[in-house]
Amino acid sequence: VLMTAMSGLFLAAPAGVPLPLLAWTVLGTAFVAGGAAALNQVWERDTDGRMERTRLRPLPHGRLRVGESTGFGLALSATGLAALTFGANLLSAAVAAVTLLSYLLLYTPLKRRTWLSTLIGAFPGALPPVIGWTAATGDLTLPALVLFAIVFLWQMPHFLAIAWLHRDDYARAGIPLLPVVEPDGRSTGRQARLYAGLLLPVSLLPAAVGLAGVIYLVAAVALGAVFVGMSARFSRDLSAASARHLFLASIVYLPCLWSALVASRVWLQ
User: Residue 167 needs a FRET pair 20 to 30 A away by CA distance; which of 13, 81, 125, 178 works?
Assistant: First the structure.
């Protein structure tokens, strides 16, 4: 979250970001993200307690109570929104508020109802670079939407790989993610391949909107080709190994792409 928010900030202001603006944006985004995570764990404490990967979180494990956890999450969120409002601008705080509310009030409750929650959850997950962009510019323009689209599409293969690896855990908790609803995995594999395929051309759009040059294009094509290849491999064999490789590829892909984009933007400036 912080990496993409800071990238949005520096992409919007390649000549340099004032230190106070950088500090308030990072602090505000971190607090809102932390508050959202804390409140999400309050909401999901029952299902967290049923899953092996989350059963030792503070609430299901009994180390924290609901009341103090809720207060902590609300305090973090409010502090973060205040930091963005007064340290950056109202628009960046509004984008952060939309991120927080859509994560908690749409994505979190829908996780127990429909596999489409993964797609819906990708919306708040893709907003941090927009927070950074609006903090620097005070405006919501096309380049910010391009950054949003890149992170939105990247999340789908990333989270589908996680869902496949932990599908038994999710089934035990009653969370109907796609690998739980369709256990043969064919739809999961197809969707991972589809979104990775869509991401490749979308990742080239920063050059079209003036954010990047040839250096970035070369990096985006190379990284995208590897990511598509790993998604295609996962869709073919649907093994734990291929899912883990896709997951690892996803967490290498995004910071490398963002680093190339920021470097190309600064070079152009």
Answer: 125
- Exposed/middle/buried for 194, CB within 10 Å: 0-12, 13-18, 19+? middle
What's the CA gap between 195 and 178, in Å, rounded? Answer: 15
Which residue ranges in the chain fall short of pLDDT 50?
Answer: none
Give the 3-state secondary structure of residue 17.
coil
The model's pTM: 0.94
In this structure, the number of other CB atoms found within 10 A of the CB of residue 237 comes to 11
User: What tokens appear for 5 in the block?
Assistant: 């928010």
Decide if 171 contacts 150 (C-beta within 8 A). no
Amino acid at 218: V
C-alpha span between 126 and 147 (Å, rounded)? 8
Q: Of how many residues is the chain composed? A: 269
Q: What is the pLDDT of residue 268?
A: 66
CA–CA distance, 186 with 169 (Å, rounded to integer): 19
pLDDT in tens, 17-35: 999 999 999 999 999 999 9
CB 146 within 8 A of CB 11: no
- CB atoms under 10 Å from CB of 51, counted, come to 19
Q: What is the mean pLDDT of the chain?
A: 95
Cα-Cα end-to-end distance for the chain: 25
Dihedral pair phi/psi, residue 14, rounded to 5°: -65, -20
Dihedral sign (CA 207, 204, 252, 141): positive
